[in-house]
Amino acid sequence: MSFPGAPLSAAENRPAGGAALGEVLLASAIGLGLAVALLALVFVHRTGRSTVLIRIGDRLGRTGGVPAWVALPTTLTTVSLLTALLGMLWDISLHIDVGRDEGPLANPAHFLILFGLFGVFAGGVLACAMPLGGRPGPAAVHFLRGWDVPVGGVLLTSAGFYALLGFPLDDVWHRLFGQDVTLWGPTHLMLIGGAGLSLVGLLVLEQEGHGGLSTDDGDRKVGRASRFLRQASAAGGLLLGLSVFQGEYDFDVPQFRMVLEPFMIAGAAGVALVAARMWMGRGGALAATVFFLVVRGLIALVVGPVLGETAPSFPLYLGSALIVELLALALPLARRPLLFGAVAGLGIGTLGHLTETGWTRLTQTLSWGTDTLVEGTLMALAGGVAGGLVGALLALGLRRRLPRPAVARTLFAGCLVTIAAVAANGVLATVPDDLQATIGVEEVQAEPRTGLITVSLEPADALDDPSWVQVTSWQGDGLVVTPLERTGEGTYRSTEPVPLSGSWKTLLRVHDGRMLSAVPIWLPADPPIGAEEVPAEDGVTRQAVPEIEIFQRERTDDTPGWLWAAANIVVLLCTLAIVGAIAWGVGRYSRRAGAAEPRPATLADSPAPPAARVGGR
Fold first, then answer.
1. How far apart are CA 321 and CA 357, in angstroms?
2. Which residues contact 330 (CB under 8 A, 6 or more apart)?
3. Could you write out the DSSP letters of every residue in 516-568?
4. What CATH number corresponds to the domain at position 490?
5. How far apart are CA 277 and CA 298, in angstroms?
6. pLDDT tens string 170-207
7. H-type helices in 130-259, by residue range?
8. Apex CA 88: angle with CA 206 and CA 2, to 5°?
9. Per the structure, how many domains does the chain have?
10. Structural domain boundaries enclosing 578
11. Separation in Å, CA 216 to CA 334, 459, 606
């Protein structure tokens, strides 16, 4: 096997901190221009100088029976989110294959992310600006005199702005701390989290557009097929957004313990699939899953065969969707919705987890083994139950049937604490002080240099039942993940050659239980960060170090600790604020729209005629 010898000069020209000032100014100008255009559009609409928004919205909403102020923002936001998702996965693949950028505008995927996130923000602004001549639903928020906005539009605008804010802050972060090449960088989480949470705004907006009318008893669909498909895309979009957090595992370059992946998959399934089934009715969970699989499958084809980058895998979710659908038929869903959420979460964390285990063996090089059997299952159970309860609360909010505030808030806060605690357990890892590896190199090809690797660990009994002992080579115009076969106690060898020259970075990775460590095999010199070459030498013995020291080689070590802590705290507070805003919006819609109903507060909804449009011509 041969590998391309990516020239070192390409990497040497890439800055390790923030982008060049010219690119920052140009990106700022693009953002300012888009904002001015959006505000101008809002102005001419609100002052009656143009009816273009209403005309477009009326055409889009005619088939679905929703007002213009729902149809246009929903269409714009859906297209924008899909664009941003494609850009995000393409961007991850580019960073894996070729390393850091020369600047934000030098990476084509960044344009998709930027325009996609701005489209989400614009969708929220238009949802707030388009209603004219009355309150868009009983939960509407008073903005200015004569101007009330739908609560779904407020949530969509807030989440979109939060995500969009992460784009410029990412450059500031790199200037302060260097390039933390990980999906879980704080500003990266802002981009992902804001985009994912915007789907909740879309779900609420969908309900407001129909006057709050939902399905009947959760088992039969009321309304036309177009509405069901639109709801499926919204619920499937929520599943897409929650699944982006697993991105490093999808590309086989996780920088965290393997037990985090089953936890994140079960949590995403719990929230999105339980909410979809309870909100949409029969077939909701399956429809959301089909939408997810179609979109992620198409993106994998585009990123991989079409664009020629490393293609991501993705979770299956079909097993969990079937479990949710079957449990909904067996349990008294209408009478005990929270119990259904918890039991469905248990099913997702057990049988659903089992189906995902088999799926990873088919699609991932780093699949789930016996090392993750106990702890991984426990974390999947915790994620499934917490996610199922959050999904049930979301569906009850959309159906205007939230329990009393004390119960809903306590349960939601408890789920958030559980999710945070389990995630923290998955992040915490150790590196033994005495673990060393002697690397043997049997050269296979001289130019570009490749070789077979042998490894002898000291102490020899350092590993018990490892999740992986493998060699990862990346950022050399490709990705190579090579599991090593065990040849004896503490000794391993590769079954195929790995790259050992050019801009490739090749390292031995060892993950056993809570231990997560790495040993450099070949690292090129990197003048912009002052890093010297680490040569690939036969018989060299090197100390195991935390993986982050190699994977995130561009991070700076001279930043004061208090600044790092303060920056993370600020991002955390912003995240809690947006989560709190989403919870407030769902609660406001549920209680105000529910109070306006002339019927008893039960879960069952009976069919009713379409809601009158607000903000038409």
1. 15
2. none
3. EEEEEEEB--BGGGTBPPB---TTEEEE-EETHHHHTTT--S-S-HHHHHHHH
4. 2.60.40
5. 25
6. 777 777 777 767 777 888 888 899 999 999 999 999 89
7. 151-177, 186-209, 225-243, 247-250
8. 145
9. 2
10. 21-214+556-617
11. 10, 64, 5
Residue 320 lies in a domain: no
Residue 168: CA count within 13 A, CB half-sphere: 15
Q: Where a domain ends, among 551, 575, 591?
A: 551
pLDDT-derived band at 611, boundaries 50, 70, 90? very low
Classified as helix, coil or strand, 498 is strand
Q: Are 493 and 452 in contact (CB under 8 A)?
A: yes
Q: How confident is the model at residue 20 (pLDDT cuts 50, 70, 90)?
A: low
Specify whether 461 is located in the same domain as 588.
no
Asked whether 235 and 287 are in contact (CB, 8 A), the reply is yes
* Domain-ending residue, one of 551, 586, 609: 551
User: Alpha-carbon distance 554 to 180, whole Å?
Assistant: 7
Model confidence over 109-120: pLDDT tens digits? 888 998 999 999
Question: What does the DSSP assignment read for 279-299?
Answer: HH-TTHHHHHHHHHHHHHHHH
Contact, 550 vs 523, CB < 8 A?
yes
Decide if 326 is inside a domain.
no
**591 and 479 assigned to the same domain:** no
Q: Per-residue pLDDT for 617 more than 60?
A: no
Residue 194 lies in a domain: yes
Asked if 280 and 305 touch (Cβ cutoff 8 Å), the reply is no
Cα distances (Å, whole numbers) of residue 428 to 104, 282, 512, 513: 31, 40, 13, 11
Transcribe 385-452 into DSSP letters. HHHHHHHHHHHHHHTT-PPPHHHHHHHHHHHHHHHHHHHHHHH--B--TT-EEEEEEEEEEETTEEEE
Q: Which residues touch 503 (CB under 8 Å, ≥6 apart)?
A: 6, 7, 8, 10, 11, 98, 99, 475, 476, 477, 524
Q: Does 89 reside within a domain?
A: yes
Residues 133 and 169 in one domain: yes
Rounded distance between C-alpha atoms, residue 59 and residue 574, angstroms: 38
Calpha distance 505→502 (Å, rounded): 9
Give the single-character DSSP code of 128: H
Reported pTM: 0.90
